[in-house]
Amino acid sequence: MSFKEIQNIKIEYRTLSDDVVESFYIPCLSKAKRYNRAVGFFSSSILVQISKGLCAFAKNKGKMKLLISPKLEEKDYLAIEEGYKFDYESYLKDKFFEDFNDSPNIEEMDRYALLSYLISNKILDVRVAVLEKNFDNAMYHEKMGIMVDEEDNKIAFSGSANETYNGFNLNYEVIDVFCSWKSQDSEIRTFTKETNFDKLWNGTEKGIITLKFSEVIESKLLKYRRSDKERILNLDIEYLEKLRKNKKKKNEPFIDNNINLHYYQEEAILEWQKRNYRGIYDMATGTGKTFTGAASICKLFEDKKRLLAVIVCPYIHLVDQWYNELQLFNIDAVKCYGNKNKYQKDLDRRLMRFKQKRSNFVCILITNKSFMIDNFQSLIQEYLEDCLLLVDEAHNFGADKLSNTLNVDYPYRLALSATLERYGDSEGTEKLFDFFGEKCITYSLDRAIIEDKLTKYKYFPILVNLTDDELDEYIDLSIQISKYSYVFNKEKKKIPDKVKKLLLRRARKIAGAQNKIPALLGVINKYKNDNNLLIYCGAVKYGEDGYDSAIDEKKQIQVVIEELKEKLGMITVKFTSEETTEEREDIISSFKNQEIQGLVAIKCLDEGMNIPAIKTAFILASSTNPKEYIQRRGRVLRKSPGKKYSEIYDFITISRPIEELIKLSYDDKKYEVSLALKELDRVKDFARLSLNPSDSNEIIDKIKQAYDLDIITVRGVEDYE
Question: What predicted TM-score, i.e. pTM, was given to this entire model?
Answer without folding.
Answer: 0.60
